[in-house]
Amino acid sequence: MSFAGTVIQWQRERGRHGLPWQGSRDPYRVWLSEIMLQQTQVATVIPYYVRFLSRFPTLKSLAEASQEEVMPYWAGLGYYARARNLHRCAKVVLDDWHGLFPENANDIASLPGIGPSTANAIAAFCYNARQPILDGNVKRVFCRYYAIEGDTQKKAVENRLWDVAWQHLEGATDNIDMAAYTQGLMDLGATVCTRGKPACGVCPLADECVARIEGRQAQLPTARLRKSVPQRQVCVLILEHEDRILMYRRADKGIWGGLLTLPEFADRQACSSYVQHSLGESVTAMPLAAFEHVFTHFRLHIEPMLVHAKAMPALMPAAGDSTDHTSRWQWVELGALAESALPAPLKTLLTGYFDAETGVASDTPRLF
C-alpha cells in the first residue's frame, strides 16, 4: 500500500473523529479551524471555535462586524494577529470574491493571514485538491520517516520537507481522499508521532520509518538552539470607579494589538505618582500580588496596583501614542469583564479579583 493509502486507512480506523470542524466542506468553517489551530492545541480551540461560530456563523457576518465586536471572541486564545487577519481576510473575500472562498490554493494563499500550508489544507478539505500540508506536526512525521536533519525553520530543510510532501501526492496513481489523508497526517503527528514519547508501536508507518529503524526518534526533528528568554516588567493599574474599570484599547499591532488593556507604567513608583497626581495626595494605590506571563519571545513580569476611586480621574496619555489618545480610553463595567476583549493574563487577574455578579471585590475592603 502507498504512503498515502496507509495514512488514509489508519485515519479512518484510528484517527480523530467528531471534532466540531470535521465533516464540513464549508471553507469558512475549515479556514476558521485552521487559523485557530495554528500553534494552539485542539482542546483549547474547541470552545473558542464553537463560541466564535455561534456569534459569527457565516463569513458575511464576520466581515460585516467591527473589529471591536470580533476581538472579545478571540481574547485568551493568543497570537492576536491571527484574529485581526481573520477579520481582514473575511472582508477581502466578501469584497473581492463575492463572499465565496476561491478554490485554487494559490488564490487562497494570497488572502490576508493565510500561508501555503493553511491554503493547501483548505483546498484539500473543501475541494479534494491534491495539495500537501506542512504544519509542525507533519514536519515531525516527515523528519522521522526520512531521517531529515536540521532546523525545520531553515529554508533548505523546509524545502526538502515540501519536496517529500509533494512526492507522496504526485506519485500516487489512485484516487486519494484528500480530507482523510490531510487529517491523517495531522492526527499522526498530534497523537502518535509526538514530540516527547512517540508511540511507534501503534504507528502505521513504523516499518519504514528511518528514525525508528535507527533508534533516532529522540534526535529527530533536530532540536533548535534555545536562546535566552528576555525579561520585561510592567506595572498595571486597576482603577475602579462606580463599578467600572478604566481600560485602554491598543493600536492594531503588537502582541496585544486591538485588545483592551489596563493603564501601564514602568514601575510601581510611576504608577503611584500618577494616582496621586490624578486623584490627590491622600489616595494610595494598593499593590496586589505580582505574576508572570510567558510569551513566545519574552517573559513579562506584571505588578498590579489597585485603586477604588470615588471621584472621576483624568484620562492619562498612552505611552508612544501621538494621536488623540482619549478616544482609546473607555470605562468597562465589572460585570462585563468576562466577555470583554482582554488579554488572558489580565482577564484572569480582573475576573479573579472582582466577583463577576456583584461587581465588587469579595475579600478586600474599599480603600477610601
N→C terminal distance: 76 Å
At CATH's second level, what is the architecture of the largest domain? Answer: Orthogonal Bundle
What percentage of the residues does DSSP assign to strands (E)?
5-15%
Q: What is the tally of beta strands?
A: 8
- Summarize the biggest pleated sheet: 5 strands, mixed
The percent of residues in helical segments reads 25-40%
- The global form is elongated
The number of helical segments is 14
CATH homologous superfamily designation of the largest domain: Hypothetical protein, domain 2
| Low-pLDDT runs | 318-324, 356-360, 362-368
For this structure, what is the CATH class of the largest domain? Answer: Mainly Alpha
Query: What is the fold named in CATH at topology level of the largest domain?
Result: Endonuclease III, domain 1
Mean pLDDT: 89
* Domain module count: 2
Structural class: alpha+beta
**Order of SSEs:** HHHHHHHHHHHHEEEEHEEEEH
Radius of gyration using CA atoms only: 24 Å
Would you mind describing this structure in some detail?
- By secondary structure, this protein is of the alpha+beta class.
- The chain folds into two domains: 3-219, Orthogonal Bundle (Endonuclease III, domain 1), CATH 1.10.340; 231-353, Nucleoside Triphosphate Pyrophosphohydrolase (Alpha-Beta Complex).
- 40% of the residues lie in helices and 11% in strands.
- Strands 1, 4, 5, 6 and 7 form a five-stranded mixed beta sheet that branches.
- Helix 2 runs antiparallel to helix 8 (116-127), helix 8 (116-127) crosses helix 11 (178-192) and helix 9 (136-146) packs across helix 11.
